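Go through this one:
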Amino acid sequence: MVNLVQTKRLQKYRMALLRFKKMGLKKTFSHSLSEETSVSAVLIRKDFSQCGIRGKRRGGYDIDLLLGELKKIFGHEKEQNIIIVGLGNIGSALVKYEDYRQSNMNMVAAFDIDPAKRTRRYPVPVYSLENLREVIDTFDVSVAILAVPEFSAQETSRYLVENGIRGILNFAPVLLKVPDHVLVNNVNVMIELERLMYHIGVIQD
């Protein structure tokens, strides 16, 4: 089992490998991945070794085989269905994102309280929250993207959990209170910008 820090590095390797594949490359080496990801070649080889992935000293790593092994680690062998709740500016952009398929994820539905959103053209059907349970059961959904305003985020997350959601990617600027068995990843643009500004200030000083 890889830890959270290793998971982030493995995700970096995967992004680099996908880029190499688009370039038409068949093989890669740890030093090439190091240049692309800014992770040392020694640590890359150690991460792969701990995951049972072996390369050849002179032949390097087969990119397709590496991607296949990373798919197994991240559970991408089986298609994962996801939903999004909230079609404001952020939600509307996320529902149109086209790279979910690279990770074998399938956006199956969106939800919004505004009836007008359900008549507009989106890449997926848009439903009322009244249809949430039916969609979750039909498509075996366990992960939701939450992109609703702050004032409704906690109540909406509670409703998601009650209807079977076990993982939430939260774009609302609020820390959600959920049961221990539910995992929440918070994406807050302002916090990330503040962190950048802080570190830039430290470096400049």
